[in-house]
């Protein structure tokens, strides 16, 4: 289920990425959708790699014309090149702030946070520090709460430490 779920995310992200690139990234709404899809694809591959390591890369939408394909295991270098490229593209195409306080949306800080996790996995501590410092330096939305217990208090658990949340 974990494998299928993440590859389903990758498949949908591929469709959005290809469509956005066909439309052109000049439009801000198209570029944001493209950047969000890049985030989801990069993160899905990262989650799969952490659990399974041996992955196949699929970066094109599946259509009736390419349904019959032979997949081979990608090298770790190729997997991480795609993950880092997707997260860097996402970071470059997303805003810092959540529009209209639309909590749960992907932002530049979210992409930088996951990019820092990837850097930590690769033991690239300088990159991890740079990404995290960028988040704190921005100052538009994200900061550490004065007291740890403040993170978990409040009726909706929304505070300046939340970079991304699943809304249920």
Question: Would you give an account of this structure?
Answer:
This protein is mainly α. It is 58% helix and 0% strand. Helix 1 packs antiparallel against helix 2. The radius of gyration is 17 Å and the shape is globular. The two termini are 20 Å apart.
Would you kindly provide a brief summary of this structure?
The protein is mainly α.
Low-pLDDT segments:
none
Backbone shape? globular
Work out the number of β strands. Answer: 0
Distance between the termini: 20 Å
Average residue pLDDT: 88
Q: What characterizes the major β-sheet?
A: none
**What fraction of the residues are assigned to beta strands by DSSP?**
under 5%
Amount of helix: 55-70%
Which structural class matches the secondary elements? mainly alpha
Count of helical regions: 6
- Give, in order, the helices and strands: HHHHHH
> What radius of gyration results from the CA coordinates?
17 Å
Secondary-structure map with pairings?
Blueprint: H1 2-23, H2 28-52, H3 76-93, H4 108-121, H5 125-138, H6 148-151
Helix pairs in contact: 1-2, 2-3, 3-4, 4-5
Summarize this structure as a short list of keywords or feature phrases.
168 residues; 58% helix; single chain; mainly alpha
């Amino acid at each position: 289920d974990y494998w299928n779920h993440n590859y389903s995310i990758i498949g949908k992200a591929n469709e959005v990425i290809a469509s956005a690139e066909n439309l052109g990234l000049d439009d801000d709404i198209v570029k944001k959708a493209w950047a969000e899809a890049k985030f989801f694809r990069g993160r899905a591959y990262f989650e799969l790699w952490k659990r399974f390591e041996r992955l196949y890369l699929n970066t094109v939408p599946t259509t009736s014309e390419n349904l019959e394909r032979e997949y081979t295991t990608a090298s770790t270098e190729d997997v991480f090149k795609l993950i880092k490229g997707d997260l860097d593209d996402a970071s470059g195409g997303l805003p810092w702030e959540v529009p209209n306080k639309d909590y749960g949306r992907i932002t530049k800080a979210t992409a930088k946070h996951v990019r820092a996790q990837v850097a930590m996995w690769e033991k690239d501590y300088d990159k991890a520090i740079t990404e995290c410092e960028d988040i704190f330096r921005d100052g538009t939305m994200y900061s550490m709460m004065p007291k740890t217990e403040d993170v978990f208090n409040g009726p909706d658990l929304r505070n300046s430490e939340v970079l991304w949340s699943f809304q249920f």
